[in-house]
Specification:
Order of helices and strands: HHEHEHEHEHEHEE
Organism: Kribbella karoonensis
CATH superfamily: Vaccinia Virus protein VP39
Pfam family, one: Methyltransf_3
Structural class: alpha/beta
Strand content: 15-25%
Number of strands: 7
Keywords: Methyltransferase, S-adenosyl-L-methionine, Transferase
Bound molecules: S-adenosylmethionine
InterPro entries: SAM-dependent_MTases_sf, SAM_O-MeTrfase
Protein name: O-methyltransferase
Number of helices: 7
Helix content: 40-55%
Length: about 200
């Protein structure tokens, strides 16, 4: 990440923290990913040379900037979906400022629809950061649309462990995947679809 983008992501991080501090209703918050988790995911994108990435939950595009910068380094592209059109518009403006707008297709779409409309094995990596109670219902499509050897990252598995307990039980019981928990930020669960399954 170059200096200009580092300055922008630092600025956005501070903005998100300040913004959220004044919002008692969690749905009004931006709920940006923690910087150490963003750096970890961007590193994974580079290490795995991911070229097709799906983000579920754009908010104002903080994590999107990190991921898009890494995907661009691989010569790839990403799609990021968000239900709230105002948030998606903010993300578009932030991507413009970062010079990353052409790397990302922003969709105002339900995560469930983005998954059901994806082809089998379409995505090398998926970042899941939306509404946790729905994750369990996404599981069949998440595995189907990940390419063999592809990686799914899920945020907030430590900060909201109770809300993802049923999802985590599904993952652990599924022989088609392997998992590891990275205790950075709010806790990022890393799940790899086995290369042969
Ligand atoms: C935790 S925030 C995402 C934060 C973002 N990844 C970042 O780091 O800046 C969750 C976002 O998901 C959106 N969202 C919630 N349910 C969704 C759904 N079913 N489909 C798409 N987006 C959804 C919310 O509007 C919210 O902006």
């Amino acid at each position: 990440m170059d200096e200009k983008l580092t300055a922008l992501t630092d600025q956005l991080h501070r903005y998100g923290v300040d913004h959220d501090a004044g919002k008692p209703d969690r749905l009004d918050r931006l709920r940006n990913l923690e910087p150490d988790s963003a750096a970890l995911l961007a590193l994974i994108v580079r290490a795995t040379r991911t070229q097709h990435l799906l983000e579920l939950g754009t908010s104002n595009g903080y994590s999107t900037l990190w991921l898009a910068d890494a995907v661009r380094a691989n010569g790839g592209r990403m799609v990021s979906v968000e239900l709230d059109p105002d948030r998606s518009a903010e993300a578009a403006a932030n991507l413009d400022r970062a010079g990353l707008r052409s790397v990302v297709e922003l969709r105002i779409q339900d995560a469930a629809d983005a998954l059901s409309e994806s082809a089998d094995g379409e995505w090398g990596m998926i970042f899941l950061d939306a509404e946790r109670p729905a994750y369990r219902s996404y599981w069949p499509d998440l595995v189907r649309v990940l390419e063999p050897g592809g990686l799914l990252a899920v945020d907030n598995v430590l900060s909201h462990a109770d809300q993802v307990a049923d999802f985590r039980a599904l993952v652990t019981a599924d022989a088609r995947v392997s998992e590891a928990l990275a205790p950075t930020g709010a806790g990022v669960l890393l799940i790899v679809r086995d290369p042969v399954c």
